[in-house]
């Protein structure tokens, strides 16, 4: 089992100066290595629609990859002595970040989805450094944790490290309100739980919305907190104050920090609400069906502010991770027509966005979101049943094709059947 705990750091002024310097040097190294890859890409590519039949390209350069750029760190340390103070694995992690973001742009991730073109990190845009080496148990003493080339750091252990877990990696993150350390913990002795096959008895449906954050298929509602809208007046005031400050002045830096802290507070409140809501959902002990929403498209409409304030994407991500740890499933279903379909008889009941009550000829009368949650529950169970049937059908087709490629007496290599079996 793999999990992560984040703790606040109490650093001395010297430690803060050292970490800030390391973050800045890693930012410059990130931009330099990303620039190397962009130069290779620009000098070696040739558009198909504008390439002549006879093309005289300069000698192609070797593509900078993960290992070649790691080997070049030796030259970096010889030219710039300040890089010798940074742990080697921390610098190698910077190269790994460049490799990951560049490959996701050109090749895409495991699902084939490509990201946008990587951007160079400006000042303040690179906020974390990693220590990939495992932290040994003897390096954690009380509220002190020892990291290479920086010494003991004071940590506020608001929750203890679980027994049996080993600290695999550590990362220091700089936020608007201070420094934090994230410990990646692993315990191989904890087995992964296998979820049960979803049925109507062990599955619940939830409908995400903006009137209520979510509605259970039982009719219970979770009120949407609207953290950003509640702090909007405060944000407007301090952002207006920021716009009046002279660029480059100390007062402007202080105003920027006030704005950053206000936004961080909203983010922390929203994340805390998402974790508590996910825990309440999973405490029921049932699989959860939800809509497979296209959140990016919804966030481009006039409901953008409310959609971002609700944070559906972050909530569903937290819910899926916590459900997997609890041995449960989150099932994403097609959202088309969930509010129009009757949960009792399945008939389509047209509604506009203003119609908040579902009334069907079959006698089903309930709230619009309550009805949608019930439809989502039925779709979640039926979705997996159809997937299992399709998988079984595909397996049967593949096995029949294998049988067709063999003779009746078991001799392989013959693709056509004899006349005796043609009519069978």
Automatic annotation (TrEMBL):
Q: Where is each Probable transposase IS891/IS1136/IS1341 domain found?
A: 195-300
Give me the ranges of the annotated region Disordered. Answer: 395-424
Q: Which domain of life is it from?
A: Bacteria
Identify the residues that the record assigns to the Cas12f1-like TNB domain, covering every copy. Answer: 312-376
Instruction: Choose any GO biological process term that the UniProt entry carries and state it.
Output: DNA recombination
Annotated Transposase putative helix-turn-helix domain residues: 1-45
* Any GO molecular function: DNA binding
> Can the keyword Repeat be found in this entry's annotation?
no
* Pfam families registered for this protein in UniProt: Cas12f1-like_TNB (PF07282), HTH_OrfB_IS605 (PF12323), OrfB_IS605 (PF01385)
Keywords attached to this Swiss-Prot or TrEMBL record, sorted alphabetically, are: DNA recombination, DNA-binding, Metal-binding, Transposition, Zinc
State the similarity comment.
Answer: In the C-terminal section; belongs to the transposase 35 family.
What name does the UniProt record give this protein?
A: Transposase
The scientific name of the source species is: Chamaesiphon polymorphus CCALA 037
Lineage of the species this protein comes from:
Bacteria, Bacillati, Cyanobacteriota, Cyanophyceae, Gomontiellales
């Amino acid at each position: 089992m793999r999990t992560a705990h984040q703790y606040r750091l109490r650093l001395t002024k010297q430690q803060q100066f050292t970490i800030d310097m390391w973050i800045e040097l890693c930012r410059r190294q990130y931009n330099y290595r990303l620039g190397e890859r962009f130069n290779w890409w620009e000098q070696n590519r040739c558009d198909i629609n504008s390439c002549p039949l006879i093309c005289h390209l300069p000698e192609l350069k070797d593509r900078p990859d993960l290992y070649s750029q790691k080997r070049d760190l030796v030259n970096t340390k010889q030219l710039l002595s300040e890089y010798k103070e940074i742990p080697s694995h921390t610098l190698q992690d910077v190269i790994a970040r460049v490799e990951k973001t560049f490959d996701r742009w050109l090749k895409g991730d495991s699902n084939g989805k490509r990201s946008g073109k990587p951007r160079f990190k400006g000042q303040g845009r690179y906020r974390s450094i990693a220590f990939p080496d495992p932290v040994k148990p003897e390096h954690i003493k009380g509220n002190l944790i020892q990291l290479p080339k920086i010494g003991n750091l004071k940590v506020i252990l608001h929750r203890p490290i679980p027994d049996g877990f080993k600290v695999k990696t550590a990362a220091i993150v700089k936020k608007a309100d201070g420094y934090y350390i994230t410990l990646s913990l692993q315990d191989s002795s904890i087995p992964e739980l296998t979820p049960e096959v979803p049925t109507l008895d062990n599955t619940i449906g939830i409908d995400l919305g903006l009137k209520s954050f979510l509605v259970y298929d039982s009719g219970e509602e979770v009120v949407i907190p609207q953290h950003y809208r509640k702090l909007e007046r405060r944000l407007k005031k301090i952002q207006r104050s920021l716009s009046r400050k002279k660029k480059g002045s100390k007062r402007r830096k202080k105003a920027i920090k006030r704005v950053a802290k206000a936004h961080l507070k909203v983010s922390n409140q929203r994340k805390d609400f998402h974790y508590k809501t996910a825990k309440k959902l999973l405490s029921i002990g049932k699989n959860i069906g939800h809509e497979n929403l296209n959140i990016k498209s919804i966030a481009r409409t006039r409901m953008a502010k409310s959609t971002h304030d609700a944070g559906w994407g972050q909530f569903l991500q937290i819910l899926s991770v916590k459900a997997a740890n609890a041995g449960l499933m989150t099932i994403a279903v097609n959202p088309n027509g969930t509010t129009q379909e009757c949960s009792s008889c399945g008939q389509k009941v047209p509604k506009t966005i203003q119609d908040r009550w579902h009334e069907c000829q079959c006698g089903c009368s309930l709230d619009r979101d309550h009805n949608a949650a019930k439809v989502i529950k039925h779709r979640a169970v039926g979705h997996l049943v159809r997937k299992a049937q399709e998988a079984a059908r595909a397996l049967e087709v593949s096995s029949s094709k294998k049988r067709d490629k063999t003779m009746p007496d078991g001799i392989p290599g013959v693709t056509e059947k004899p006349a005796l079996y043609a009519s069978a």
